[in-house]
Write a structure and sequence with these properties.
The complex is a heterodimer of chains A (414) and B (251).
Chain A: H1 18-27, H2 33-47, E1 74-75, E2 83-85, E3 92-96, H3 97-103, H4 122-131, E4 136-140, E5 150-156, E6 161-171, E7 176-185, E8 193-202, E9 207-214, E10 221-230, E11 235-242, E12 247-256, E13 262-271, E14 276-285, E15 291-300, E16 305-314, E17 321-331, E18 337-346, E19 351-361, H5 364-371, H6 377-393, H7 399-411
Parallel strand pairs in A: 1-6, 4-6, 5-7, 6-8, 7-9, 8-10, 9-11, 10-12, 11-13, 12-14, 13-15, 14-16, 15-17, 16-18, 17-19
Antiparallel strand pairs in A: 2-5, 3-4
Chain B: E1 3-13, E2 16-27, E3 31-35, H1 42-50, E4 56-64, E5 67-68, H2 74-80, E6 82-85, E7 92-96, H3 97-106, H4 117-130, E8 141-142, H5 148-162, E9 166-170, H6 178-191, E10 197-201, H7 205-210, E11 215-220, E12 223-228, H8 230-239, H9 242-250
Parallel strand pairs in B: 3-10, 3-11, 6-9, 9-10
Antiparallel strand pairs in B: 1-2, 1-4, 4-5, 7-8, 11-12
Helix pairs in contact in B: 5-6
Classes of the chains: A alpha/beta (414), B alpha/beta (251).
Bound molecules: adenosine-5'-triphosphate and magnesium ion.
Adenosine-5'-triphosphate (ATP) is lined by residues 13-14, 16, 18, 36, 38-44, 87 of chain B.
């Protein structure tokens, strides 16, 4: 055991002490030994993390203190469990993480090898590996095609507590699935921090559509660290809608690992008050003939702020890659702020790649036009934002999911 | 009084005086036309009445049915019943015509009431049909990529859906082909009634053959300098504006 009484980086957080980790481990003594080892191993790695540097490119522009764990002193004791929605489907294993640890632990054997996106929030990732209790495990058998979306819902804790969870989604060859992931808050009057590690793996020819809606309350912090592995000719389309959180950090790393894989990564954030959206992404091409298309759109009201930092990385072997990365920001107030750091690192020569970022203010003539029709200002802004988001919303597949997104966005203006 | 009543209205933009002590009355039930050289302030007048924030009103008043418009926000003015058909309609990307007009109607409903979708689309389609606008336009983004004439038709579509008390049509005829001019004019004429005042701003007497005005006014340098019957428009068509300028200079 490490002897320092309290880890100097996280003085304030009670749960970041060796004693706490011991008691946490004791509570979970029913788990298989390999999992206990993995938690312990992650804990040790956490303790040996270097002290945060002030000049860390991976945190550029980020008011990092706002995202720290010191704001949340306790681990949630009895957090509201994730809710899974959807009947039992032949060929699909879909359960909470705890149930999977109990009932099918062998399907989790790979967990210790699963990497995080590694885009800066190493501490969050390692703590997630130590302390994850909730989350889902979803795995399709080969060739299973399910049209009806599977839905799961997760909750940020209350009373300033912290919660870690892990979602594992794995599609076997040629299976197809749509999932809807919701993140909200247990209660509205107090907040907490929810840190979600997510591992998504698509085998050959698999297709996954994912809609993610994040609407934790504005007293909460949301961390989302996601790694995606795309196998040969697989396709993943993601639409994330980020509405909630006083502050959030999302790291997304998509590895185009198999030849001909295709990754569409779309994100919409809508901020008001003093919300902060800190977004870090990588599209890493390590196989030829892959496609990736990233579009992050942020609409910012009041004093909200977004940071987008993206990288397209194309390895020498990944010839004939098509990779695009775009960040567009719409400022609806003079005090809103968007920072953008697009990046390319292309080591193959036969590629089509582009990246771009634009930030524009709301067009006053456009606003006047809507107002001149009698539309109230907040509705006019809502329409302009829905219009700004429209190219992504339209990708949401069915009319039902399109309406779901539009409704969620509309609620944010009420 | 049931009218738009403008008294001694002065307004400027970026420090330039554009409207200079302008006086004008549009009673309800009547159609008036304003003509005048480029830059004389016609669009400025329509924007000031609509509450455009870029203009500074330095003097005067503008009342609609005895309610002072100056100082109200554009959406309040619109809900009170003023409609401006823009000289240059604005593109609203990603917002369909159907959703746009529906939001405008919704804004006029009482709390807790909603636009009834079936009735709404029925009315919308009838009016689109009357104005020769294809149904496929309902889902297109407002004005985005529309031709000049399509934009103008769409302004009149909005106007007829929103049922305003007073309408200002700023050069609605420009950009319209000969057939469209007739179709749009018929659309405006359908809206003429004893409860509504209509102001058309135009450069061309031709429009006034279709939409026959009760009065014609000439605007020059931010003022109404002449008012007359529809024959005044014919005279302007024939003689241009120079004679008016000379008369003003002489006075
Ligand atoms: N932002 C501005 N700064 C300075 N001058 C302006 C500004 N906007 C408009 N103006 C001027 O105000 C004057 C009146 O413009 P307005 O558009 O009202 O004219 P108009 O009578 O509608 O002309 P037209 O017949 O060409 O449509 C013009 O000289 C114009 O250049
Ligand atoms: Mg004009």
């Amino acid at each position: 055991m490490v002897s320092t009484p309290s880890h100097s980086k996280h003085m304030d957080s009670q749960f970041l002490t060796p004693d706490f980790f011991e008691s946490f481990s004791a509570k979970r003594s029913w788990e298989p030994g390999w999992l206990a080892d993995f938690r312990k191993d992650s804990w040790d790695k956490f303790l040996s993390l270097p002290i945060k540097k002030n000049k860390d490119e991976r945190w550029r522009f980020s008011p990092r203190a706002r995202l720290g764990f010191s704001n949340f002193d306790q681990l949630a004791e009895s957090p509201k469990p994730s809710i899974l929605n959807g009947q039992k489907i032949e060929g699909i294993l879909f359960d909470t993480l705890d149930q999977t640890i109990l009932n099918a632990p062998s399907s989790l054997l790979d967990l210790p090898n699963m990497q995080g996106p590694n885009l800066g929030a190493d501490d969050t990732f390692l703590l997630g590996c130590c302390f994850s209790e909730l989350g889902v495990f979803l795995k399709t058998e080969k060739g299973i095609i399910e049209k009806k979306p599977l839905k799961h819902c997760h909750f940020a804790p209350k009373n300033n507590q912290s919660l870690f969870q892990t979602n594992i989604i794995s599609l076997e060859p040629f299976s197809e699935l749509t999932i809807i992931e919701i993140f909200e808050s247990e209660v509205m009057d107090t907040g907490g921090t929810l840190s979600n590690l997510s591992h998504i793996k698509l085998a050959e020819g698999a297709k996954l559509n994912r809609i993610l809606i994040q609407k934790v309350n504005q007293l909460s912090t949301f961390n989302h660290l996601e790694s995606i592995q795309l196998g040969r000719n697989s396709e993943f389309t993601n639409i994330s809608l980020q509405l909630g959180g006083a502050q959030s950090r999302s790291e997304s790393k998509g590895v185009i690992a198999g030849e001909g894989a295709s990754f569409n990564n779309f994100s919409l954030s809508l901020g008001n008050g003093e919300q902060l959206f800190d977004q870090r992404t990588v599209q890493h091409h390590i196989s030829p003939h892959g496609k990736s298309n990233l579009l992050y759109k942020n609409a910012l009201l009041d004093e909200s702020k977004s940071i987008f930092s993206g990288l397209i990385k194309v390895d020498p072997i990944a010839q004939n890659t098509d990779a695009y990365q775009t960040n567009r920001n719409l400022l609806l107030s003079a005090n809103a702020e968007a920072d953008s750091l697009p990046g390319l690192e292309i080591l193959a020569n036969e590629v089509k790649c582009s990246h771009g970022a634009t930030t524009s203010k709301i067009d006053n003539q456009e606003l006047f036009y809507l107002l001149s029709r009698g539309i109230h200002r907040n509705v006019a802004e809502k329409l302009i934002v829905l219009g700004f988001f429209d190219e992504i919303i339209r990708e949401a597949g069915t009319q039902e999911t399109i309406e779901l997104l539009r409704d969620e966005i509309s609620h944010h203006f009420n | 009084m049931n009218s738009i009543q403008i008294d001694n209205l002065s307004a400027k933009i970026d420090g330039n005086n554009i409207l200079n002590n302008l006086n004008f009355t549009l009673p309800k039930g009547e159609v008036h036309a304003i003509m005048g050289p480029n830059g004389s302030g016609k669009s400025t007048l329509s924007k000031v009445l609509s509450g455009h924030p870029d203009y500074d009103v330095t003097n005067g008043s503008a009342k609609m049915d005895d309610v002072e418009l100056l100082g109200l926000s554009p959406d309040e003015i619109a809900r009170l019943g003023l409609f401006l058909a823009f000289q240059y309609p604005i593109e609203v990307p990603g917002v369909s015509i159907a959703n746009f007009i529906r939001a405008a109607l919704q804004a006029r409903m009482e709390e807790g009431q909603n636009v009834k979708a079936v009735d709404y689309y029925k009315e919308l389609y009838v009016k689109m049909d009357e104005l020769g606008i294809d149904k496929s336009f309902t889902s297109r983004s407002m004005n985005e990529g529309f031709s000049g004439g399509e934009k103008k038709r769409c302004e009149i579509l909005q106007m007829s859906m929103l049922n305003p008390k007073y309408c200002i049509l700023d050069e609605t005829d420009s950009g319209l082909d000969i057939d469209a001019l007739r179709v749009v004019s018929e659309g405006v004429n359908r809206m003429k009634n004893s409860e509504r005042g209509i102001l058309v701003i135009t450069h061309y007497q031709r429009l006034l053959d279709y939409i026959v005005p009760d009065k014609v006014h000439v605007m020059w340098d931010g003022q109404i300098v002449r008012s007359g019957t529809k024959e005044l428009a014919l005279e302007l068509e024939e003689r241009g504006y120079d004679w008016i300028k000379e008369e003003i200079a002489a006075a």
